[in-house]
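Entry for flavin mononucleotide complex. Fields follow.
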Amino acid sequence: MRIPCPFCGDRDAREFVYRGDAAPRRPTADDEFHDYVYLRANPAGAMRELWYHAQGCRSWIVVTRDTRTHEIFGAELAKDAAR
Amino acid sequence: MSRLAEGGLIDRTKPLRFSFDGRHYTGFAGDTLASALIANGIRLVGRSFKYHRPRGILSAGSEEPNALVTLRKGDRAEPDSRATTIELFDGLAATSQNRWPSLDFDMMAVNQIAAPLFVAGFYYKTFMWPAKFWEKLYEPLIRRAAGLGALSTLPDPDSYDREHGFCDLLVIGGGPAGLAAALTAGRAGARVILVDEDRIFGGRLLGERYEVDGVAGVDWTNAAVAELASLANVRLLLRTTVFGIYDGREYGAIERVADHLPQPAPGQPRQRFWKIIARRAILASGAIERPLVFGGNDRPGVMLASAVSTYVNRYAAAPGRRAVVFTASDSGWTTAADLMTADIQVAAVIDSRPDGGVSASRLPHDVETFSGAVVVDAHGAPLRGVDIRAADGRIRRIEADLLAMAGGWTPAIGLGANLGSRPVWSESIQGFLIDVAPPGLQPAGAAAGTFSLGAALADGVAKAVSALADLGFAVSAPGRYEASDEPSGVTPLWHVGGSRTKAFVDFQHDVTDTDIALAAREGFVSIEHLKRYTTLGMATDQGKTSQLNGHALLAAATGKSIAEAGTVLSRPPYGPVAIGAFAGHHRGAGFRPERRTPAHDWAASQGASFIEAGLWKRARWFARPGERDWQETVNREVTTTRGTAGICDVSTLGKIEIEGPDAALLLDRLYINTISTLPVGRVRYGVMLREDGLVMDDGTVTRLAEDRFFLTTTTANAATVMQHIDHARQVIWPELDVQAVSVSEQWASFSVAGPEARRLAQRLLPDFDLANSAFPFMAAVETVWQTLPARLFRVSYSGELAYEIAVRADHGEVLARALHTVGQEFGATLYGIEALGVMRIEKGHPGGGELNGQTTAADLGMGRMMSRKKDFIGQVMAARPGLTAPDRPCLVGLRPVDPRQRLCAGAHLLPGGAAAVAANDQGHVTSAAFSPTLGHSIALALLAHGAERHGERIVVHDPVRGPDIEAEICSPVFVDPEGIRVHG
Amino acid sequence: MTRFSILSLMKNAASGHRNWQPTWRNATPRPDYDIIVIGGGGHGLATAYYLAKNHGISRVAVLEKGWIGGGNAGRNTTIIRSNYLLPGNEPFYEWSMKLWEGLEQDLNYNTMVSQRGVLNLCHSDAQRDAYARRGNAMRLHGADAVLLDRDGVRRIAPFLDFDQARFPVTGGLLQPRGGTARHDAVVWGFARGASDRGVDIVQNCEVTGFLRDAAGAVAGVETTRGTIRAGRIGMAVAGNSSRVAALAGFRLPIESHVLQAFVSEALKPVIPNVITFGAGHFYISQSDKGGLVFGGDIDRYNSYASRGNLPAVEDVCESGMAIMPMLGRVRMLRSWGGIMDMSMDGSPVIDRAPIDGLYVNAGWCYGGFKATPASGWCFAHLLATGNPHEAASAYRLDRFRTGHLIDERGAGAQPNLH
Amino acid sequence: MAEALTIRTRSGFGLATITARKGVAAGAIGQALGLVAPAGPVWTAAEGVMLLGTGPGVWLAHAETVSPFWGDGLRQRLAGLAAVSDQSGACVVLRLSGAGARIALRRGASIDLDPAAFRPDAVVVTAIAHIGVTFWQVDAVPTYDIAVPRSFIGSFHHWLDVTAAAIRLPVPASGEA
Ligand SMILES: Cc1cc2nc3c(=O)[nH]c(=O)nc-3n(C[C@H](O)[C@H](O)[C@H](O)COP(=O)(O)OP(=O)(O)OC[C@H]3O[C@@H](n4cnc5c(N)ncnc54)[C@H](O)[C@@H]3O)c2cc1C
Ligand SMILES: NC(=O)c1ccc[n+]([C@@H]2O[C@H](COP(=O)([O-])OP(=O)(O)OC[C@H]3O[C@@H](n4cnc5c(N)ncnc54)[C@H](O)[C@@H]3O)[C@@H](O)[C@H]2O)c1
Ligand SMILES: Cc1cc2nc3c(=O)[nH]c(=O)nc-3n(C[C@H](O)[C@H](O)[C@H](O)COP(=O)(O)O)c2cc1C
Ligand SMILES: [Zn+2]
């Protein structure tokens, strides 16, 4: 599998660390922390997810990928991702 | 000898000696082991899996289910190798498998007598009584009988390499379709990789006698390959099997670099693992001929017709003297013609199609032919004759030592299903074809069901043209090829009824027609259940020749069409791949890289023993002559450090620089304690939590400037913490203006600890005021050592007066030497991580045993460090009841009541007198050591209500290692609890 | 139903095996049941079996979207063991081990439970101590555990790399009662037992929605084969837990990840036990057919495709070669993947769902095969009585809220690290 | 056919990581240093200083200098614009040259090094044999410089030796530049 790092270009997935659903935003209210820490989207289909280019440019990126086909639709730097 | 007098793509000037089961034979360069065996008249090659039936050679390619041998000997022995793909080399030694004592006389063949019991799934119904007998009796028996070849158990002596390929077009298979595709793309200027698993290109052309553009197929191939080789944008890979298709248009392939040699040259890898990224790909993998299912179809001497042609045409080896051809397709007639051209007698051609006889005119002279007829039983091992049932129902025996069967062709589309799309049935070709192809891939030629040569060539061109168009390459004049073609019609015959002997569907696994019927009867009617219940298609050939016949039989048994019954998925690898090839360089000591500190070699010269700490090699201790054991060495290192001074390499700690206007703010959010109040030039101990509230890591934070900090992490967590910080600043709080970079590799650092540490350090830095007043505990400074930037920290892990000195890594060894030289004047010792560990336990500092991802800051006695005045990662979740429960085990010290006894980490803690059951389990020992300072064993432990129980006695329960020990609970700080020494 | 024995086998052989009956009834769904179990994997079928056997409830349907055993039950590396550390886990897995030990006689089906021993290798003092901690915990729970030194390991597995290894073997933790079982037979055996007791096993029946009553409780399911009613519904859909939960309108602390497994060409017996590597991700055993069945770490990205990619393959093979250099010339025959419900603390959930009448059995990660009998037993208990079985009492859904986590590895809320 | 490959260990250079402050564009940083700071994974050079783009807003500065305080100087020049960390001791830089250099790197890294695809000024941060490395092409011979974290250099050499042997290359003893 190749992950399209917005900075480095397409790279072997082995260079990356994965961290799931990119949607959760760190909450401010205490009672929202359970969901933030434990409930991440796990859809069968397109998903925006976090990857860290650990053996590359060290960017956290948001990749849009279909979890059924592994097809990748695009990627952007997490710090630029729409919030 | 069965070698034909002339012809074939073998080099008769290069005879090669080889042995099979200890007997010696000769073949020629260009032979496979199978063709050489055939040329030597050997017909019995192996034994089947379950019934141990004698087996010969079925095919001439990688689909072979029967002719499996163990190739080579000793540590290079390779069990389960297909004789049909082994290239002959001089001195080749092969042995047959799965027989005892010999291939001709196999005791295990008694299984055949019990065969009526050994039907599909029989083992699920028996061997259950008595229960204990399974492991002791039944299973060992089954296991011994099963399995094929034996593994040497010696380390593989060969090496494996890897390579990465990138291209516009990958062409998988260099038969006519693949060659035509590669030529088209190569001429258009695209970057092309053409692979074939054979030793030469040509595919079926090598085994056929067709012509292309008026020249022999082989000559056309040679010209095509020569042209391709002349193109700089084309890469040709022979002996290379594409074994799998993966995401991102990635193709895995194995190049057999040296398998055709007696052994690899020095430094030469045996095989090379390719990862190829191809924008487009063409699957021109051809088609595989199907056997016919009739009684005795597994007997040595019964072969695929196309294989017969290949042996005769390509290898000039005659698989028999008197042949019968049994065909359901036109290609059987081609084989009959090939045999006759080679002067091999064709006793009869039996075509199951009522109108099959029309092809008789294709034969050069008269042969007895039967239409609408079948072979019902084959006799002899090796084959002596066949019983045929003519159209009128009469049975007739025909003597023959070779039966060529042509059941039709199955496109070799296994790779196309690798991404999970099931092939679909095609009525027109009576076979399964790729439905949804992997992105960028198109099948071509026989793999696309385009069987005839002319059409396959044209399809190769057309598919290449379409791929090139996608990529924006212009093709000016696509090639057109004229082929001397023949019809390729087939009317499948899935099963011959009325046989009296076993009819095999899956040869290697001994799955018969009746097994399939039985499975259906027992409810295993899903194609996937059928597979698992009968093991159809699960052998080393993955059912390349058997799958479709089996599925057709299931369809018939359940009254469905083949399209409804469906087929199973082919998974990688397409052909079996040596595990060593996937591992490549990363085995043995090269499994993972090794990290060495800058002073590693110097430490070794000082007598250091090293130990793994993650990827690092760290000095464990520095033994001196005369020391009896490591304990004595470590005791000395600790005692000398505490009494005088010690020097320790701490370069492995993770080191991170954090800069920017918001650096302090970020650090406040990362650590449980407040960092923003830290003055410049000072160090603070800090603890980080994960967002779930459990401790992630601990370390020090130094403020180098108002907006510049230097962090240390534990050796084990360096990468995790860096990732965590990047996550915090890029994902959680991208609005912060803060930069972070790892400088772990930049600094070599050494700890100098002990009462003499100041004097020692002062000698190193004569111009710097190290007095307590000027440079107190937890002070830090960027300074200069000799002419180099250096950093000095007054921090202590050992609990002694201590300094950490760091210089650029490339000067680390120089610093180590300088410290040692000065140290010797003071009687300082070098110490390793074992002594470091003892001293940290003596001081009650948490280490690996305590920072195990399951503890909270409070568990470790650091609950009060958690600031309430700010938000930090983990704060909220750390407050959950489960993480704040008063009965959570917390950090205590333990000392044995009998000071001669030793405590061990991993022991559990039980109240005195309580039964050794889980209900009484109150905690466990996290770290333990012998304390030379106290003269007895000490330990840290996590114990329920531990903080309130100092002075109590408890049982240290360690049944996996030894008897219970009584211990006294105490403070985790064993040495200098007031912390006077560090301030000294 | 014919009782299986060597006698019945011989009798049937005499009649050309023409009289065997279907192993289970391939049922057509009825309009309503007392209990519906979603998922015809090992857990769903075992649940149905024990509902009928232990609780006398047989108006039960098992709804399977494909063919039974086609999920993880048919894809796993068949290791059974009860070598857990934490008090929330160990009693449960030890109970499962005990059920395995009597399963064949109970089911009258040879599931080939083979107690050949599970050996976890260790490579450092710290790891040895962690294994000691675990072994001691197992012993406190009445399970068997033996801590081996290097020579002890060498006696069992002389073919390991003791000399050149990057991370030398220093010892191991052996559970002699651990081993393997024939995965497909477990599915078929439970199906046969359940079907025989009246349970309807319905294949090609995918649950696509839930029916609710006026009070909001579940009242049945919508399926690809129509509406089926029941007041109590248990979901045991492994890798699809999040999807089925979403149909019911709630979220689970689970991510679906792919784990690959591999089998080699068949070899004569060479690896006696189950062996796991401690300095990398690799485990291996040899099937009765002779194939070396092995695997390692998950692919580490969310997936619903039952297949993986090369990095995980490389990692597994590197790790295999690191401890068993004899594997170099062994050829991998097939690879495949299964979708696992990786939970946020690496431990499962057997609990009520936040919706009345709906019950969750999920989060088994890569270790739920060994749990099959106990999971079925405990889930049946919960479905039948409404109360958690004591062996599974820690597997609560609200533990993430309360902080009573069961995190064997200490990896935190990061499913792909468990 | 033996492809040429020479391997030299470089010395006497300075290395530093430069990370732009939030909102500071590459242009400003380049200006402060007297060259064009690349915005992508490529390098630029002027007056003995090279800027290698290794990440978004992150560069590795490489200078032919021997001053141990070079990093501090850089920090002063970029005050307010970027964070600077000296890395002069962090890496061993090897220079691989000859047709074999491309083959060796291709065997190690999953990067398309074909001249048709690889820019002559490209910078690659990747992993070879599980070791995180940074390499860039110096000339069309081709010659590459590759920065290997110092603690890994032994293992990297081991990989390089085996790989060089595998492509049938005589491995020259690595000498100081
Ligand atoms: C490669 C691999 C190796 C493993 N190795 C081991 C091991 O060695 N030891 C071990 O203990 N565990 C192992 N496991 C884990 C173990 O296989 C699983 O935890 C366990 O099988 C899950 O329970 P199950 O058998 O009920 O799941 P499954 O067999 O997956 O059953 C769930 C069923 O639910 C069905 N389903 C899903 N959605 C619906 C729907 N909407 N409607 C109807 N039906 C539906 C699915 O089709 C499936 O058949 C491994 C897993 C994998 C993938
Ligand atoms: N007359 C008939 O009924 C009939 C039927 C089928 C095929 N054919 C003949 O087959 C030929 C069709 O041409 P084609 O080019 O489509 O097929 P081909 O069989 O000639 O070539 C396929 C090639 O692909 C290679 N290959 C297969 N899988 C591979 C893999 N995974 N990795 C690497 N290499 C792989 C094989 O070694 C082979 O060389 C014609 O010569 C035609 O006459 C005839
Ligand atoms: C324990 C075990 C052993 C297996 N042994 C074999 C085998 O010997 N031959 C084979 O072809 N497949 C074997 N398989 C793999 C199956 O063929 C199949 O790949 C797996 O059940 C997943 O199904 P799928 O590939 O259809 O998705 C085995 C699977 C398991 C779980
Ligand atoms: Zn990147």
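NOTE: The first strand of chain C starts at residue 35 and ends at 38.
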